[in-house]
């Protein structure tokens, strides 16, 4: 009987989750469409010509440039160009790169995994720093450890990623000669040596992003735990004779993580922005360096595709955060 009740409860929870996800997806679709319209309109009205080099080249007749603009529809109305672009995106045709002379989707698929690996490893490092340090500092407020952790977190959050990246290059690459400061995709190695070289060259980009985010999240975790640890139900748990470790891990941390999840989701645009700067410093062949090179070359199809992909990733991470709320706090129901 008890097992049947549990199965019924799980079935209802899964049904509620499915309905909630469906409603969220119905909200995501108009958001994605609105973002694409804004991005496409801004890029279409921005000054610059992807075929500007052809115009300044005396060996290229003006008719060639005019034919190219007509071929890619650059002289058509913005609304017509957007409808054509959206239709092509739906069938998997993301456009053609004017600078690289290859399809945009191939460029993104080549660069996106590297960016996701670097960002993913850096966020794991940030959580590995912020959670234990923030929780331990909050359980011992105004102690020596708390003061040292708060000071280091303030320093780490105040230093921009480009400064920390250059500092790491000067120390670990130039003076100590421990790590390479240029990320190479064509490593001539096999077996474990191949993975070791990739690990070595990813250390500094991951550390720069991870330490910056970890410093920010440490201060927030400490504040969230301090707010929860003073509540009445925590005092009641202690009065029942529970060990301090059980009180903190079971009753405090889980509820304190709810605003932390919100912070992580809201900071995803900042994380991607920091990844773009970091990729430029260490020459990481990711989607951020692709975006910068496309902006410098006025490669509009690549700029549009990359910014659209980054926007979709931000929306995805916010959706994941909404789902995690119900797991962290059973009082939150999906209706």
Describe this structure in words.
This protein is mostly helical and 335 residues long. It has a domain at 117-288 and 313-328: MetI-like fold (Orthogonal Bundle). It contains 13 helices and no strands. The chain has helices at residues 2-45, 52-56, 62-71, 78-90, 104-139, 144-158, 161-175, 192-229, 232-239, 244-266, 268-282, 287-296, 300-328. It is globular, with a radius of gyration of 25 Å. The two termini are 27 Å apart. The model has no long low-confidence stretch (mean pLDDT 80).
Write the layout of secondary structure elements.
Layout: H1 2-45, H2 52-56, H3 62-71, H4 78-90, H5 104-139, H6 144-158, H7 161-175, H8 192-229, H9 232-239, H10 244-266, H11 268-282, H12 287-296, H13 300-328
Helix pairs in contact: 1-4, 1-13, 5-6, 5-8, 5-13, 6-8, 7-8, 7-11, 8-10, 8-11, 9-10, 10-13, 11-12, 12-13
């Amino acid at each position: 009987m008890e097992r049947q009740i549990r199965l019924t409860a799980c079935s209802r929870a899964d049904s509620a989750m499915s309905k909630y996800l469906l409603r969220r997806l119905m909200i995501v679709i108009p958001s994605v469409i609105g973002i694409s319209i804004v991005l496409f309109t801004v890029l279409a009205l921005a000054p610059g010509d992807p075929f500007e080099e052809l115009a300044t080249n005396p060996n290229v007749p003006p008719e060639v440039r005019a034919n190219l603009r007509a071929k890619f529809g650059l002289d058509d109305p913005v609304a017509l160009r957007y409808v054509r672009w959206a239709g092509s995106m739906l069938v998997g045709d993301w456009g053609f790169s004017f600078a690289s002379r290859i399809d945009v989707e191939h460029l993104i698929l080549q660069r996106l995994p590297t960016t996701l690996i670097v960002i993913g490893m850096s966020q794991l490092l940030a959580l590995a720093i912020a959670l234990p340090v923030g929780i331990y500092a909050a359980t011992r407020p105004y102690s020596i450890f708390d003061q040292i952790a708060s000071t280091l977190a303030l320093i780490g959050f105040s230093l921009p990623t480009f400064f920390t990246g250059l500092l790491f290059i000067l120390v670990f690459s130039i003076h100590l000669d421990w790590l390479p400061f240029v990320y190479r995709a064509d490593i001539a190695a096999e077996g474990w040596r191949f993975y070791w070289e990739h690990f070595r060259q990813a250390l500094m980009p991951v550390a720069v992003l991870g330490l910056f985010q970890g410093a920010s999240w440490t201060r927030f975790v400490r504040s969230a735990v301090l707010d929860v640890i003073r509540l009445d139900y925590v005092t009641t748990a202690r009065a029942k004779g529970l060990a301090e470790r059980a009180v903190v891990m079971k009753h405090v941390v889980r509820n304190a993580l709810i605003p932390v999840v919100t912070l992580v989701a809201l900071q995803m645009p900042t994380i991607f922005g920091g990844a773009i700067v970091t990729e430029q410093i260490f020459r990481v062949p990711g989607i951020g360096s692709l975006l910068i090179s496309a902006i410098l070359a006025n490669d509009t199809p690549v700029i549009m595709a990359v910014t659209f992909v980054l926007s979709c990733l931000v929306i995805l991470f916010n959706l994941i955060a909404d789902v995690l709320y119900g797991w962290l706090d059973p009082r939150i129901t999906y209706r």
